[in-house]
């Protein structure tokens, strides 16, 4: 799932393409909805995006926002969505179908070479969501966002941790508490903080809360720097290469050399290092535990 660093990387990349310093801003020439389930709004017509040039490309939490014609195209890439940029899309409209293509946005250019991007989504479970609104706060997911991870000071963070009645991994992933962190970076943050993903948030010691706060800042700052300036096509691979434990089940922990382990759930999994995070204890695989009952 694209998280704050990758979505910020996409926003920065699109800004260079759509609002360049040395040329007029781009103008949207066409929007093709190729998966009818992707568009979640109907009040604002798609043609409204053609009423004026692109004026802003922003990120809020894990949402990507393009503003044009006074309205906002808000995109949430969910678990398996991605944005693919092309400096020259082929002429002609596409036919809606059941494949990975969900949305195509074209920008004015040469008749036979218009730049633009496609939103795609792998797999059969379709969660990618696009909204066209007059105010981003009209999008329910944005309205529920907590403070951005980089905007939270330590005292506020400590208060959020103390008030959470659940596991610390769940707190880090809860967008209404802290915006921008998902499954991958929560694994990395907890590994850097030497904390079990199953640790009870409210029972963390003050020094553990301090470690967690510092790890969150350090991991996200590193990830943001890693994503900065990269083309959209490189962001996913660069994210994978930078991971220490997430997605590395069975590999060696780069910190201590122990084997990275996994806990599987119905539709997701987490990775951790027993030596670094759980004093050598192996966490129960929740999926297997259910099967053995």
Automatic annotation (TrEMBL):
Superkingdom assignment: Bacteria
Domain FPG-type span(s) in chain numbering: 244-278
Signal peptide residue numbers: none
Name of protein: Fpg/Nei family DNA glycosylase
InterPro entries per UniProt: FPG_cat, FPG_N, H2TH_FPG, Ribosomal_uS13-like_H2TH, Znf_DNA_glyclase/AP_lyase, Znf_FPG/IleRS
Catalysed transformations (reactions): Hydrolysis of DNA containing ring-opened 7-methylguanine residues, releasing 2,6-diamino-4-hydroxy-5-(N-methyl)formamidopyrimidine
Organism whose genome encodes this protein: Arthrobacter pullicola
Needed co-factor(s): Zn(2+)
SUPFAM superfamilies membership: Glucocorticoid receptor-like (DNA-binding domain) (SSF57716), N-terminal domain of MutM-like DNA repair proteins (SSF81624), S13-like H2TH domain (SSF46946)
Record keywords, A-Z: DNA damage, DNA repair, DNA-binding, Glycosidase, Hydrolase, Lyase, Metal-binding, Multifunctional enzyme, Zinc, Zinc-finger
Domain Formamidopyrimidine-DNA glycosylase catalytic: start-end pairs: 2-109
Family: Belongs to the FPG family.
PROSITE patterns for the chain: FPG_CAT, ZF_FPG_2
């Amino acid at each position: 799932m694209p998280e704050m660093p990758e979505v910020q990387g996409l926003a920065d990349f699109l800004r260079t393409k759509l609002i360049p310093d040395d040329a007029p801003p781009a103008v949207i020439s066409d929007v093709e909805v190729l998966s009818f389930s992707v568009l979640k709004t109907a009040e604002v017509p798609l043609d409204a995006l053609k009423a004026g040039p692109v004026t802003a490309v922003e990120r809020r939490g894990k949402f990507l926002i393009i503003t044009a014609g006074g309205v906002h195209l808000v995109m949430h890439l969910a678990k398996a969505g991605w944005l693919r940029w092309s400096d020259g899309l082929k002429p002609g409209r596409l036919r809606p179908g059941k494949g990975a293509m969900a949305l195509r946005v074209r920008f004015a250019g040469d008749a036979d070479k218009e730049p633009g991007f496609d939103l795609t989504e792998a797999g059969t479970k379709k969660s990618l969501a696009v909204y066209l609104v007059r105010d981003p706060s009209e999008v329910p997911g944005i309205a529920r966002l907590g403070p951005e991870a980089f905007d939270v000071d330590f005292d506020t963070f400590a208060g959020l941790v103390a008030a959470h009645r659940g596991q610390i991994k769940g707190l880090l992933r809860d967008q209404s508490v802290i915006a921008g962190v998902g499954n991958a970076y929560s694994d990395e943050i907890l590994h850097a903080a030497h904390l079990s993903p199953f640790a009870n948030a409210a029972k963390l010691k003050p020094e553990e809360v301090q470690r967690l706060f510092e790890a969150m800042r350090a991991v996200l700052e590193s990830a943001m720097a890693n994503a900065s300036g990269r083309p959209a096509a490189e962001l996913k691979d660069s994210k994978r290469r930078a991971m220490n434990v997430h997605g590395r089940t069975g590999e060696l922990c780069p910190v201590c050399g122990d084997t990275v382990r996994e806990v599987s759930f119905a539709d997701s999994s987490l990775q951790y290092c027993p030596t670094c995070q759980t004093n050598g204890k192996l966490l129960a695989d929740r999926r297997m535990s259910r099967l053995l009952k």
